[in-house]
Amino acid sequence: MAVQVSSRRLAVGLLIALFSAVAFGSSGGVAKGLLDSGWSPAAAVTLRILIGALVLLPLAAVEMRGHWELLRRRRTWAHVALFGALAVAGCQLFFFLAVTHLTVGVALMLEYLGPILVVLWLWAVRRQTPRALTLAGIGLALTGLLLVLDVFSDAQISMIGVLWGLLAAVGLAVFFLVGADESTGLPPLAFTSLAMLLGAAALALAGALGAVPFEMAADDVPLAGAVVPWWVPVLWLGIIAAGVAYATGVIAARRLQAKLASFVGLTEVLFAVAWAWLLLGELPAIIQLLGGLLILAGVVCIRLDEPSRPRVQPDLTTPAAART
């Protein structure tokens, strides 16, 4: 079924996407104090996701009135599980792990190679062969990645941090691809809260089994030049940087579709750098900022190369050949 994006729907979607980017962008700066005070990334992410899910749950229950039969479908749970495991739990865990080795700005710039992965997925699975401008955009983004890594200087950068950042990019691509898919019929807040609950449960189980370190601390946390109780950043991460951010992000993705939503979502990099400067006094090196701008320019090229036509809602679980 074709979905034409009207000008009003586009404008509202853009505003929601920007609001989501502001909320998401605060997570690294707020979380870093927790991680430095003894919290493990898995513990911080689990509590963040669980609080966010619980905040959304009452709204999700209202939204599900008349739609409870959707929960009987295997397809619904397949989408929810995929989103919860990779776009929620995996993406945030990998990002927080990256932040323990890299600055917030550099970790975000690596994570936001995710839109490039969206283009590659659409190419491989839906046979949407990229044209010259898209290929140029990918080249710019990859050049930007080299600058973000500062490979031309003698500065040392943690390659394990780079790996975590790139894995976060995979989770981000899943966020936009699966988040934009409305084929299950599940309302956005219900979809988001269920996925977050599953993601939190998966991380808690991994922590209980010892697969990932799961450590918390009751020490006060330095934040924005002050010292605050540990629960202040935890509540911020759960309510603002998880509940509000994920819900508005999924709503925006459904309004804008995956490629445009992922492009607008790149503004999170800029907001994250601003939050990191405000909360931590932390800025990337000039060459790394230049790399980030090249990554942004690359994704702008990809967006400009997208044909202006009615969009067909993708079925992410069925290969392109089977849908023809």
Automatic annotation (TrEMBL):
Keywords noted in UniProt: Membrane, Transmembrane, Transmembrane helix
Which Pfam family, just one, is annotated for this protein?
EamA
Give the transmembrane region(s): 41-64, 76-98, 104-125, 132-149, 155-177, 189-210, 230-253, 260-280, 286-304
InterPro entries recorded for this chain?
AA-Vitamin_Transporters (IPR050638), EamA_dom (IPR000620), EmrE-like (IPR037185)
Family listed: Belongs to the EamA transporter family.
Q: What is this protein called?
A: EamA family transporter
Topology relative to the membrane: Multi-pass membrane protein
Ranges of residues in domain EamA: 13-149, 159-302
Where does it reside? Membrane
Native organism is Nesterenkonia aethiopica
